[in-house]
Structure formats: structure tokens, C-alpha cells
Amino acid sequence: MRDAVAADLPGILAIYNDAVAEWQAESGGRLFPQALLPFWDLEATLKEMRRCVEELKLKGFTITDTPERVGLPDYGTPHWEPFWELANDLRAPLNFHIGSAGGGFSPFVDSPWPSMGPERKMAIGATCIYLDNARMISNLLFSGLFDRYPNLKLVSVESGIGWIPFVIEAAEYQLDEMCPTEGKALQRRPTEYFRDHIYACFWFEDYGPRVMMDKIGVGNILFETDFPHPTCLYPKSQDHLANILADLSEETRRRVLQQNASELYCIPV
């Protein structure tokens, strides 16, 4: 039974994508779910990408952040060049969610001390899991992918934003300190790659969105409510936003809460 299900997984994902496309169409321009891809089968992935954008009119894709953890080549290898090329041509955003690595790795299991109780293990894992996306972002900044595929847009989902200025600053420093030879192959700096190609989402944070937007880039920040997770802002999303964004300009608020997402996902306002 397991082998039969595994063999038909691309078909199962196609059924899912059909369903969310109906959901999108029936929402009246209010909901825009992202498609899933059978990433273990590159040919099927490319076929489904075209179908989702051209036929189903979906706005983007959710991808795993570490295919190497499930026995596939990493994203910097030639194996994925057709994938990056098609994503570049379709201009469809690629979303990588915290905890999407698979391959037996789990921040909720591997981060806490074994002596911690179940609630503290959950809290520690939930704290550390945000930073796991720093690995994906760092690899993207040093990969050279954005030189070859200038239309790529990637979104770090549910990862928060307060840690991003440090990662960018560290990448800038380490490029100069550690890459005297390989660094010459990159056409631009990590900060430039981030500003033009990478987005990140926040919800519960106070300090990050209140103080660090200029360091991150106002055009690179998206807001989420995280509903219906236990850490979501519901039912006080508006109160939270009114508090943390009160001192920012109307232009900045509009960009973070509306325009960035509208432009990224090609959603008419």
C-alpha cells in the first residue's frame, strides 16, 4: 500500500492543487493558496509548475528548503537548473516554510535538552526553528543563482524578521573574509541579492518591525497572522499592528501590509 501511494504522489498533489485553485476562484479575489510540487520527481515538478500557473492561475509554489536531506541533490547543483529556469520564466514566487526540511530533522526534537518537559521542548523548538531559515537564505545569497535567474523571488515563511539584519551583515563580512577566490564569481553583494530577491514574514514580533525595517528593507517584508496556529495573533491582529506600526509612515505601513504582497504575487488591489 505504501509503495502504491508513493507512486501516485504526483497525482495526489495535482488533486490538491486543483482543489486550492477552486478555492481561490470561489474566494472572489480574497484567498491565494500556494501550489505544492512533487519535488522528488523533477520532470513531474516542471509539468505541474506550468499547469498551476498557466491553467490553474495559482500565484506561487511552496518548496522544501533542503532536498539534500531526503537524498536529492542540493539546490546549487545542475540537477535543479531546469527548475530555477522555469521558475524564473514563470515569475512565480517560491515559498520555503520553517521546518520544511524533512529527512528526520526536527527543531522540536533536536533543539531542546532531553531533560526538558514537553511544553518547554515545544517552546524551545518553536524559538529555534525560525533561525533554520537563515541557512537557506545564506546559501541563496552565496549561490550565484540570482545572477543566472534574475526574476527569482523567494519567501521565507513564518520565520520572523528580527534576525535578518545580523545574517545579512555576517554574509557581507564573511564574503570578504572567506571568499577571496570564489567570491569573484558573484556579480553583486549579499545585501543587493537580498533586497532584490528575498522576502520574509513577521507576525508576533515587536522590536523587529518597529525598529529594523530600514535595515531589512521595507520592500522585503510581509505580514502574516499565522492563523490558526497556537501562536497566531487572532483575534487581536489589528490591535497588534496598530501598536507596532504606529510610529511608521503611512507609506511604509501600506507597503508592508499590502503593496509588497500585491506586487510579489501579482494580486490586483
Strand content: 5-15%
Superfamily at the CATH H level? Metal-dependent hydrolases
Distance between the termini: 46 Å
Which strands sit side by side, in order, in the main sheet? 1-2-3-4-5-6
DSSP summary: helix tally: 14
Number of strands: 6
Number of domains: 1
N-to-C series of helices and strands? HHEHEHEHHHHEHHEHHEHH
Mean pLDDT over all positions: 93
Largest sheet: 6 strands, parallel
Q: Supply the CATH architecture.
A: Alpha-Beta Barrel
Derived from helix and strand composition plus strand pairing, the structural class reads: alpha/beta
What Rg is obtained from the alpha carbons, in whole angstroms? 19 Å
Stretches where pLDDT is under 50 for at least 5 consecutive residues are none
Kindly state the percentage of residues in helix.
40-55%
CATH T-level topology: TIM Barrel
Shape: globular
CATH class label: Alpha Beta
